[in-house]
TrEMBL record:
Biological process (GO), any one: negative regulation of DNA-templated transcription
UniProt domain HTH tetR-type: residue ranges: 3-63
DNA-binding region: 26-45
An annotated Gene Ontology molecular function: DNA binding
Species classification: Bacteria, Bacillati, Bacillota, Bacilli, Bacillales
Superkingdom in the source lineage: Bacteria
Full protein name: HTH tetR-type domain-containing protein
Organism: Tumebacillus flagellatus
InterPro entries attached to this UniProt entry: DNA-bd_HTH_TetR-type_CS, Homeodomain-like_sf, HTH-type_Tx_Regulator, HTH_TetR, KstR2_TetR_C, Tet_transcr_reg_TetR-rel_C_sf
Keywords assigned: DNA-binding, Transcription, Transcription regulation
Listed SUPFAM superfamilies: Homeodomain-like, Tetracyclin repressor-like, C-terminal domain
């Protein structure tokens, strides 16, 4: 089956941004990797910045939908947080290049940062609601849910990125066990 041009551009952009970084990547590089004319990319995206933001938005939506599709109402808040940690780790393992782009490049230009934060906020609001649920039922400490959601996302994302950029073995089960302990049990014995 022939891939659509947008899919080809999307994958090529992920590859090129991951390899070269946002600043060094060019639309010519992306067009060559996708095996399309540069004009085809500009037909779909006005600029490299717009293409980058599209990638981030699509990736964050994929992560959010993947997590939300597995959350079940009868799960306890603890089980939901465990599921989120596991899904984030699996997502970053499966979409390594996207993980690198997301966490290495999205803190660039101020406009990009603002757009990225909006997209990330959509995902973190899912975590925040679960933290609030756990606080309300007494299973979690009374913490600021927004801080907890960003800490949970950040912990999984940065730990994943550290392994992926270090080219170490990405042991999802080991990483999950460590993050679960830290997130739900704390570091102190």
């Amino acid at each position: 089956m022939r891939k659509s041009k947008t899919s080809l551009i999307f994958q090529a952009a992920i590859d090129v941004f991951s390899e070269k970084g946002f600043d060094k990547a060019t639309m010519d590089d992306i067009a060559a990797r996708a095996n399309v004319a540069k004009g085809t990319i500009y037909y779909h995206f006005k600029s490299k910045e717009e293409l980058f933001l599209f990638l981030v938005e699509e990736g964050m939506e994929l992560l959010r939908e993947g997590v939300e599709s597995k959350l079940i109402d009868d799960m306890t808040p603890r089980e939901k947080i465990e599921l989120i940690l596991r899904e984030q780790i699996a997502f970053f393992g499966q979409y390594r290049d996207f993980c690198v782009i997301l966490l290495r490049e999205s803190w660039g230009a101020e406009d990009r940062q603002l757009e990225f934060r909006k997209m990330l906020r959509s995902y973190m609001s899912v975590i925040e609601k679960i933290v609030q649920e756990g606080i309300a039922d007494g299973s979690f400490h009374d913490v600021t849910a927004e801080n907890a959601s960003s800490a949970l996302f950040g912990m999984g994302a940065i730990a994943s990125l550290h392994i992926l950029l270090g080219k170490g073995e990405y042991n999802e089960e080991g990483l999950f066990a460590d993050l679960k302990q830290l997130a739900l049990g704390g570091l102190l014995k």
